[in-house]
Write a structure and sequence with these properties.
By secondary structure, the chain is an alpha/beta fold. It folds into 2 domains: 9-145 and 281-357, 3-Layer(aba) Sandwich (Rossmann fold), CATH 3.40.50.2300; 149-270, Response regulator (Rossmann fold), CATH 3.40.50.2300. 39% of the residues lie in helices and 19% in strands. It has a 7-stranded mixed sheet with strand order 8-7-9-10-11-14-15. The protein has a 6-stranded mixed sheet with strand order 1-3-2-4-5-6, sandwiched between helices. Helix 5 crosses helix 6 and helix 11 packs across helix 12 (326-335). It is elongated. The model is unreliable at 3-25 (pLDDT under 50).
């Protein structure tokens, strides 16, 4: 997931504010959760927090790590690139050694060098932009999710081989995440011989997309791929239905948010999207799923179990080296695999997973998403 620019004054004002889950103590190992805890993308920060909190509770119930309990520290970057470095410097100054996040790629890209240069181990469960890691030579930067150059082709090939539309439009929100994945989808469709009649950006935060919907109708578009987040996708769906647009819509994991139902209404039914596989369906994760549901948390969302896995990887790395030493833990993760709810995972030299699967789902107005069949 990447950034959309939302000039929210509250997010800036609170960017360096900390909401600590328990009192600071020398007997704890702190893990910072960095993401949007204010602004329109707040739910994604909450999703990641659910995963980290559940993992910490499970690990602490078994005695913690090296005789110490893990402690979550929440830091709000609002998904804003300008706030990413502010939060990163706060973490360095507070001598926190481990980070799960940032949530959005724009903030992650802006902050990653600070974490790396100050020996803070960072694992993002949701930042999908290739630019997070490509060409950086980072030692301390990891993620527990795939990249957009995996997700985009998966979506494009699905459209070409399964949907087989006649006239496709590819829209995006003009931001690095949305435009990047939209471009990857378009390039895949071009290779597959699918005609893309419109490739265009819209302005994130607008309330009226009538002009682009008029273009879609004039071009007889029967399928729309949108790269971006749920607020704009919800409006495109609703306003398209209101204006009689007969086209199916698809998007990336950034549209997979339950808040879209309130925006799109009945028009959300049948929306197609790519998401990480639903690891909550794996029988091996039954106990973890119960731990989520016992706390009234949702284990089925896009980033809960990737966040859980990031936390588990940190804990296993500390145990593996026998010390709270982030540099040694990073080296350990580069050379070892870790058993997690998303499977046995390992990383390449630049901190990307050696294997990750995006599945295709269908969204429903009155119930959970279902695997597309």
């Amino acid at each position: 997931m990447n950034i959309r620019f939302t000039p929210v004054a509250a997010a800036i004002g609170l960017a360096v504010g900390m909401l600590v889950s328990s009192a600071a103590s020398a007997d704890t190992i702190k893990i910072a959760i960095v993401g949007p805890f204010t602004g329109p993308l707040t739910q994604y920060g909450d999703i990641v927090s659910q995963g980290v909190d559940t993992a910490i509770e499970q690990i602490n119930a078994k005695g913690g790590v090296l005789g110490k309990k893990l402690e979550a520290v929440r830091l709000d970057d609002g998904c804003e690139p300008k706030q990413g470095p502010v939060v990163a410097n706060r973490i360095v100054n507070d001598k926190i050694h481990y980070v799960v996040g940032p949530v959005c790629s724009g903030a992650t890209i802006a902050a990653a060098s600070i974490y790396n240069d100050n020996s803070v181990l960072m694992i993002s469960p949701s930042a999908t932009s290739p630019a997070v890691t490509d060409g950086k030579n980072y030692d301390m930067i990891f993620r527990t999710i795939g990249r957009d150059d995996q997700q985009g082709p998966a979506a494009g090939n699905f459209i070409a081989k399964t949907i087989k539309p006649k006239r496709v439009a590819v829209l995006h929100d003009k931001q690095s995440y949305g435009q990047g994945i939209a471009t990857a989808v378009k390039n895949t469709l071009d290779k597959d011989g699918v005609k893309v009649v419109l490739f265009e950006g819209i302005n994130a935060g607008d309330s009226d997309y009538s002009a682009v919907i008029t273009k879609l109708k004039a071009d007889n578009v029967d399928f729309v791929y949108y790269g971006g987040y749920h607020p704009e996708m919800g409006l495109l769906l609703r306003q398209g239905a209101e204006q009689g647009l007969k086209a199916r819509f698809m998007g990336p994991e950034g549209v997979g948010n339950s808040d879209i139902n309130a925006i799109a209404g009945a028009a959300v039914e049948g929306m197609i999207l790519t998401l990480p596989a639903d690891y909550s369906k794996n029988p091996a994760n039954a106990a973890i799923v119960k731990a989520f549901t016992d706390k009234k948390r949702d284990p089925t969302g896009p980033f809960q179990l990737t966040a859980y896995s990031a936390t588990e990887a940190i804990a296993d790395g500390i145990k593996g080296v026998g010390a709270d030493n982030p540099t040694k833990v990073a080296a350990y993760l580069h050379s070892h695999s870790v058993d997690t709810p998303i499977g046995k995972i390992s990383w390449n030299k630049q901190g990307d997973l050696t294997n990750f699967k995006f599945d295709v789902f269908m969204w429903h107005k009155n119930g959970p998403k279902t695997l597309y069949k």
